[in-house]
Amino acid sequence: MRTLYVGNLPWATTEEELARAFAAHGEVLSARIITDRQTGRSRGFGFVEVNDADADRMIAAMNGTELGNRVLTVNEARARS
User: Fold this and answer.
1) 42 DSSP β-pair partners
2) What pLDDT, on a 0 to 100 scale, did the predictor assign at position 78?
């Protein structure tokens, strides 16, 4: 399993919509959108967990594409230090 970072998400994107967008290019294990603790609003980025075999193909397919009139940034998530 690998985790992909997805940046520049439209504010109204749901986790289901995020998973659906990536599922066209491979198996999505989970998707989550990061929200502000106090307001509960999206912070404009999220993470998608995918199978190892699908990760590079998904990055190539989704990085630079538009979702809700915003250009997505997709790359492999870095571990927290």
Assistant:
1) 35
2) 85
User: Percent helix, strand, coil in the chain (nearest 5)?
Assistant: 25, 40, 35
Sign of the alpha-carbon dihedral angle for 35, 74, 59, 64: positive
Share of residues in the chain with pLDDT > 70 (%) = 100
Bridge partners, 4 (sequence order): 48, 76
DSSP H or E stretch at residue 53: helix 52-62
What tokens does 30 get?
């989970």
Beta bridge partners of 6: 46, 74
Question: 10 Å Cβ neighbour count for 72?
Answer: 20
pLDDT interval class at 48 (50, 70, 90): very high
What global pTM score does this model have?
A: 0.90
Cα–Cα distance, 26 to 59 (Å, whole number): 11
